[in-house]
Structure formats: structure tokens, C-alpha cells
Amino acid sequence: VRCQHYPPLRALQASAVLGRVSDEHKKEPLTSSSQQHFDSHPAGHQPEEEPQGPRPSYTGQGGQESEDYESEEQLQHRILTAALEFVPEHGWTAEAIAEGAKTLGLSVAAAGMFHSDGSELILHFVSECNTKLSELLEKEQKLVQLGKAEKKPVDEFLRDAVEARLRMLIPYIEKWPQALSVLLLPRNIPSSLNLLSSMIDDIWHYAGDQSTDFNWYTRRAVLTGIYNTTELVMMQDSSPDFEDTWRFLHNRVADAMNMSSTASQVQSTGEAVVQGLMGAAVTVSNAETSRALR
Amino acid sequence: VPAGGASLRLCSTRGAPEGINKPVIDRIIRVDHAGEYGANRIYAGQMAVLGRSSVGPIIQQMWNQEKDHLKKFNELMVAYRVRPTVLLPFWNVAGFVLGAGSALLGKKGAMACTVAVEESISDHYNNQIRTLMEEDPEKYKELLQVIKQFRDDELEHHDTGLEHDAEA
Asked: Which family does it belong to (chain A) (predicted)?
């Protein structure tokens, strides 16, 4: 698993507040998780010695789960995942995060850990969708390897992968335009570009791309264009089950396939023309030579 | 800066072998691939000029070995899911021009070019071997083997170049 790791700049206060608050709720004891990151504690933070009750186990959220503490990152992941449920109602906002925190038995102050424009929530969602897509493509690949499924032609594969990924937006489609604009904020561009490019790379990898020349870039650029334009079309699509969007996608992928075959046709035509010219040049020079010798 | 600037680790699942230092391996494979690609083009340029001379067969032989090297790095690139350098079109032209240009200076020129290039490539491979040994010789055994073999091949080319440089 390749992770983009951002060094934690965690303010100790936030987790301390959570610890104290959750003490009150007696639900989510945070034992010394902060001690792992920092040497000094603010006065007044009392790390708990014993966790109360059984520790819930988290699966598939990344990070280390050892002994009986939960890393800050894992906690953040949990809160954001819980917050997704409230996005259709509240949008990608601190309110949704606060509601999510409440369902986990944490204080609404937990939303203070995150930016007020919902950046982390959106990036978390995108990252989760990409992970789901990779798992889906991995599963399909295994089926093909085991001979239980037919290998799809490239255009069909790309179409299906992009459709599968875009369908994950459907529950949040009302609020997705807002998310797109947040993803374009300069602060978020490195992360969102990174997520986008690794998703596109994943799709090509499972589609069987093995190019080691400039095609590597061309293919990814083309697919990124297809993905982005289809996403925008989807935002404005009101047809039943987004059939207009999938038709648009179908056409764009077909265009791309045509383009690449046209490009190779142009290249072979070009080569043929060059050969013709070389032949003509040799003929002319031979004619000159023989005339000079006469 | 908003209060509590959160920072999350955003994971994208990439099928990389577990436990390898992806950024280091990425760089190594990308640079080596570019290098072998460039070397290929250099020899192609030299062959275009000196192909029919007495050193033609020698250059051809060294070129063939470089083609094998490039093939190997193509395979490694796919296996480790490394992206190729974006400067490939540039190395395509620059390598050919360097090869043809040095060949136009005559056989000595071509051999001198070979000696210089192979020397710096061997140095470069040696540095990479050192880096990988410092990281974890066991984990990177296969890659180390490949690089060591290629380094020896390049040193051979270097010595061949010296031989013919001195003779011619």
C-alpha cells in the first residue's frame, strides 16, 4: 500500500480536549496516544492508565493498531468516515463532521480538528473511493487470472472503471460541485492532484498498460481528461440513472481509441512518405551521375 | 492558518511489494532506464556514422548489450510500477546527436566518447549499489544483482573503448 504521508502537525490541545471530553462521556478513552508524538504535555492533561471497556477494532483504515491505543490519524479517519453520512444533509462542512463525531460518542468540538471548509472530509472521501476502486479492480483482475472471467478489451475496461468510480459520487451528487471547488483551492491542489493521478495510474495499470516510453504520459493525460469531463457532465445530468453521462463517457473513450489508431496511421503514412522521398532522391542522384558520365 | 491544521495520511493502494523504499527504488529505476535509453541512442548515432568502418562490429556488439540492458529496465519498470522520465524525447535526440557528433570526429572521437560515458555510468551504478547496500542488501538482492552485472558490462565497454582508442 503506497501512502502519501503528511507529517502530523497535531496540536496536542485538540486531542487533550477530546480526551477530557470523552472522559465525561465515559465512552472513548484516549490513552497516551499523544505521548507517541510529543515529549512534553501541557499541564493538566492526565493520560489515562487503564482503558475503560473493550477497545473496538478498526479494519481497513491504515495506521498501526497495536496494544490498546488508537493513533490520532485513525481517530480522524473514523470521525470523517462517520461524517460522510451527514454530508447529503449538511454538505461538506464542519456541521457534518460534528454530527459524525457525535455518532461516535465524541464532542462536537472534534470538528475543530479540521478545516472549516471541509477539505479533509472531501480528501478523505476521495481517498476512500480510490481505495474502493483499486480493490474492485484487483478483484476483477484475480477473477481473470483464475480464468473465471473474460479479459475485457481496453476501451470497455476503461469505461467500466471510470463509471464504477463516478457512481460512488451518486449519494453525494447534490453537494459534489461544492466539493470540486474546494478541491481546487490552492492549498488542496497538491493533494487532490496526487489522488487523481494515482487513481488514473491505477486504472491504466489494471487495464494492462505496460508502456515505458512517452505513451505512459499520453495515456494518463488522455484518461484524466476523459474522467474530468465526464465528472462535470455528471454534475449537470438529470437523466434516469445518469444514462446521458455514461453515453458521453462511451463516446469520449471511443474518441481516444480512434485518436491513437489515427496517430499510428499518421506515423506509418509519414514513414511511407519519407521512404518515397528518399527513393526519389536516390533515383535523381543516380540519373545525374549517369548523365554526367555520359 | 486555521486552528488545528489537520493533516491526514491519504492512502492510495498501489500494488508495490511490501516494505520496499518506493521513492528510492523509483528514482533508481527511472534514472537507470533513462541512462540505458540514452546509451542506446548514443550507440545508434555512432553506428549511423561509423557503421561501415572497421570499428563498426565492435560498436554494434556494445550496442546489442545496451539493448539488453534497456530491455531489462523496461521489465523492472513495469514490475515496480515506476513512471518513465518525462525527458525521454529529449534523450532520444540528444543521445543520437552525441553519438553521431563524436563519430564524425573519427574513430578516436567515438571511442573517447564511449570511454567517458561508460566511466560515468559505472560510477553512477556504483553509487546506486552503495545506496542499496546501505538500505537493505537482502531486500534488494535481485535489483542489486542486476545493477552489479550491468556495472560490470559497462566497465567492459569502457575498457574496450580504451583499447581501440589507444590503437586507432
From this structure: Belongs to the COQ9 family.
Q: What is the mean pLDDT of chain A?
A: 82
Same domain, A203 and A245: yes
The mean per-residue pLDDT over the stretch A78-107 comes to 94
Cell of B61: 556488439
At a CB cut-off of 8 Å and minimum separation 6, what does A19 contact? A29, A30, A45, A47, A48
Confidence at residue A143, expressed as pLDDT on a 0 to 100 scale: 95
CB pairs < 8 Å spanning A and B:
106
Q: What ipTM was estimated for this complex?
A: 0.84
Task: Flag if A114 and B81 touch (Cβ within 8 Å).
Answer: no
Q: Which of the four pLDDT bands, split at 50, 70 and 90, describes residue A53?
A: very low
CB contact under 8 A, A2 and B22: yes
When scoring A9, A64, A80, A212 by the number of chain B Cβ atoms within 10 A, the one with the most, hence best to mutate, is: A212
Query: Does residue A206 sit at the B interface (CB-CB below 8 Å)?
Result: no
Q: What residue of A is the nearest CA neighbor of B30?
A: A212
- The residue segments making up the domain with residue A106 are 72-116
Given an 8 Å threshold on Cβ–Cβ distance, is B4 in contact with A63? no
Task: Determine which helix (DSSP H) or strand (DSSP E) holds B11, and give its type and residue range.
Answer: strand B10-12
The whole-number pLDDT of residue A260 equals 81
CATH number for domain B22-166, candidates 3.40.50.11810, 1.20.1260.140, 3.30.450.20, 1.10.10.10: 1.20.1260.140
pLDDT of residue B18: 67
Q: How confident is the model at residue A11 (pLDDT cuts 50, 70, 90)?
A: very low
Across the interface, whether the CB atoms of B81 and A201 are under 8 A apart is answered yes
Which residues of chain B carry a pLDDT beneath 70? 1-18, 166-168
